[in-house]
């Protein structure tokens, strides 16, 4: 399953979705095929223009409303209740969410990095983890994290490795990959040591 298919699977007909950082709006296209209308935004005007033209060529433009916006700054649509923030870094995602007071019923992230920092800071912003899913696309692992409104306290293991994993088989595979990747760095970096120790003692269930 691809990253975008995994996101698509988590969106239901009654969600009103904004795909922030939509690029070519592939997700909007997948939703359109299901008859779901959605919003798609990007910080770059030319990206939005190209995505709109592509949607017109594919005759799905009536399903996707495009917005040029840095994060949510220019998004003035109250009905939007679900955000997708994928293919960007944790600090970009957090910067976008820190600038709004609105609380969304569902936020689906696939951050490129620092998932521990994302889990902690999303909690500080009032979002807790619903479910996580490791995805493998073209040989690379990605962490999908779905959030809902709420606050919780996480264990050290949950902060580093996540919570409520849907695909334990891929989680084990990713963790084994990390163990072999960090084999020679264990004594050289405190963060690596912490992560490797947590993985070694992790109880999969
Ligand atoms: C790597 S693409 C990811 C595309 C798609 N979301 C995916 O996951 O395949 C990242 C996109 O995010 C956009 N972007 C970066 N920072 C942004 C921001 N602050 N607000 C909106 N879009 C942003 C970029 O212009 C780019 O099109």
Secondary-structure map with pairings?
Blueprint: H1 3-9, E1 17-20, H2 26-33, E2 38-42, H3 45-57, E3 64-68, E4 82-88, H4 90-98, E5 106-111, H5 115-124, E6 127-137, E7 140-149, H6 156-161, H7 168-181, H8 190-201
Parallel strand pairs: 1-2, 1-4, 2-3, 4-5
Antiparallel strand pairs: 5-7, 6-7
Helix pairs in contact: 1-2, 4-5
The chain binds S-adenosylmethionine.
The site of S-adenosylmethionine (SAM) has 16 residues, from β2, β4 and α4.
Descriptive labels:
single chain, alpha/beta, Rossmann fold, 8 helices, 7 strands, globular, binds S-adenosylmethionine
Q: Overview of this structure, please?
A:
- Helix content is 39%, strand content 23%.
- With 205 residues, it is of the alpha/beta class.
- It has one domain: Rossmann fold (3-Layer(aba) Sandwich), CATH 3.40.50.150.
- It has a 7-stranded mixed beta sheet with strand order 3-2-1-4-5-7-6, with helices on both faces.
- The mean pLDDT is 97.
- The structure holds S-adenosylmethionine (SAM).
- S-adenosylmethionine (SAM) binds next to strand 2, strand 4 and helix 4.
């Amino acid at each position: 399953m691809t990253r975008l298919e995994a996101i698509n699977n988590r969106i239901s007909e009654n969600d009103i979705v904004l795909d922030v950082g939509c690029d070519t709006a592939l997700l909007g296209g997948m939703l359109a095929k299901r008859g779901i209308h959605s919003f798609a935004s990007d910080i770059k005007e030319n990206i939005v223009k190209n995505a709109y033209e592509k949607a017109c060529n594919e005759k799905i433009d009536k399903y996707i409303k495009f917005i040029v916006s840095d994060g949510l700054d220019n998004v003035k649509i109250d009905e939007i209740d679900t955000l997708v923030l994928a293919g960007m870094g944790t600090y970009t995602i957090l910067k976008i969410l820190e600038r709004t007071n609105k609380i969304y019923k569902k936020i689906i992230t696939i951050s490129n990095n620092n998932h521990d920092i994302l889990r902690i800071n999303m909690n500080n912003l009032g979002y807790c983890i619903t479910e996580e899913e490791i995805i493998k696309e073209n040989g690379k692992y990605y962490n999908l994290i779905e959030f809902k409104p709420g606050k919780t306290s996480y264990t050290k293991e949950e902060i580093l490795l996540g919570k409520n994993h849907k695909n334990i088989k891929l989680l084990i595979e990713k963790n084994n990959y990390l163990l072999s990747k960090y084999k020679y760095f264990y004594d050289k970096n405190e963060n690596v040591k912490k992560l490797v120790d947590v993985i070694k003692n992790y109880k999969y269930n």
